[in-house]
Amino acid sequence: MANSEQAYWLAWSQVKGVGPVLLKRLAQHFELLENAWKARPIALGEVEGFGQKLIEKIVGQRNTLNPFQFLEEHQQKNPQFLTPNDPDYPRLLWEIPSPPPVLYYLGRLDHRESQGQIPGVGMVGTRYPTEHGSRWTRKISQALVKSGFTIVSGLAAGIDADAHNSCLRVNGRTIAVLGTGLDLVYPPQNRQLFEQIAAEGLILSEYPVGSKPERGNFPARNRIIAGLSRAVLVMEAPPKSGALITAKYANEFNRDVFSLPNSPDIPEAHGCLNLIHNGAEVILSENQLLASLGAMPLLDQGQEQKNVQGDHQARYPVPTNVPTSSTGTRGKKPLTEPPENLEPTLGKILAAVEEEPTTLDQIVAVTALAIGDVSAGLLQLEILGLVSQEPGMRYQRR
C-alpha cells in the first residue's frame, strides 16, 4: 500500500505550473509534501520561484483535488510507480535539478542499483546508425555488462536497440526509459525487445498509462537517461540527433561524456566529433573505456544505508553542486535580436525568458506549454545564441 507522502507527490504532480524543479524545492523547504499541500499561501511564497499568480493557481487546484482519492483512482491503471520518498527511487536521479516526481515502472527493481552501488552507463545515438556505429555499440555494451555495469538507454530504433539487445544477449542488466506511457511501445518494431526488458530488466517512464509519443516527451526523457547514468556514451550522432541533448544534460548534471569517433566524411559522426572537439573523452577501445570508467568514485554506500529510513535530509538531500540562486552580477548588454523567421513556439518561449535567470518551471508556467516542448525549444534558442543556461536549470536572455 502506498504511503501518504506518495499520495501528495502524485497530487502535486497534477498541479499545473509546478514542474519537477519547483517540486524539488517544495520538498526541500517543507520536509514533506503533505506539509506543502496544507501550507498557507504566505508560506508557499517563501519558496523560490513561487510568485503570487502561481500561488493563486495552486490554491484553486488544491481545493478541487483530494490526494488520497486521486491516488486510489490513479493506481487502477498505474499500479507500479515510485516517488522521491520511496527507498527505491534512484538516488542519482534525485540529485539532478529536475527529478521526475512520479516514475512508473515495469520489471524488477534493484535496491543496490537505486542507491548507486551498481553503476549505470547511458548509451545513446542515432536511429539510423552505420555499420561502424552498430558494431561498436554491441562491443561496448557487452564489455560494460561483463564488468558489472547496467546499460541505460531509450528503447529507440538504431543505437538504443543495439545497446539493449547486446546487453541482454550476455544476460546483462538494462534499463529502458520511455517517452510514452508503459502501455505503448514506440517504435512498434521494438515490441519484442520491450517485452524482454520488462521480463529481465527494468522499464521506466515519467508518463502515465495512455500517454502518446508527443514530440516534447523525448527531450524530457533524455534528462532521465542522463540522470540515471554515471557516464553517457554517444556512440553515433548526426548534428541534430537527440543523443546530443542527452549529452548536454549529462554535462549539466556533472556526468562524464564519452564519444565514439569516425571519419568526418560520415554525416552520422559529425555530432560525436563535435562533442570530442568540445571536451568529451574519446572511446578508443573497450579496455581504455573500462579503465576510464573504473576511475569514477563509488557513492557512499554505508551512509546511504543508514539514511534510507532516516530524517528528511536523507530522503531529500540538497545537492552541493547545483546552486539555487543566481551566480554573480552581469553587466547590462544589448539583447540579441531574434531572427524574423523565428518559429512562433520558439518566440513564445523566448518571450518568457527574462534578462535575469528564469527557472524552467517559470517558463513552463508562462507559456502553458509541455515541459518537453519548452526544454526542446530552449535548446534550439541556445544554439541560436538567444538564451544561455545558468546553473540550476535557469535560463536568461543573451
UniProtKB/TrEMBL annotation:
One Pfam family per UniProt: WHD_DprA
Residue span, Smf/DprA SLOG domain: 80-292
Entry-linked InterPro entries: DprA, DprA_WH, DrpA_SLOG, RuvA_2-like, WH-like_DNA-bd_sf
Region (Disordered): 304-340
Domain of life, source organism: Bacteria
Domain DprA winged helix, first and last residues per copy: 334-393
NCBIfam families linked to this entry: dprA
Family that this chain belongs to: Belongs to the DprA/Smf family.
Identification of the protein by name: DNA-protecting protein DprA
Organism: Synechocystis salina LEGE 00031
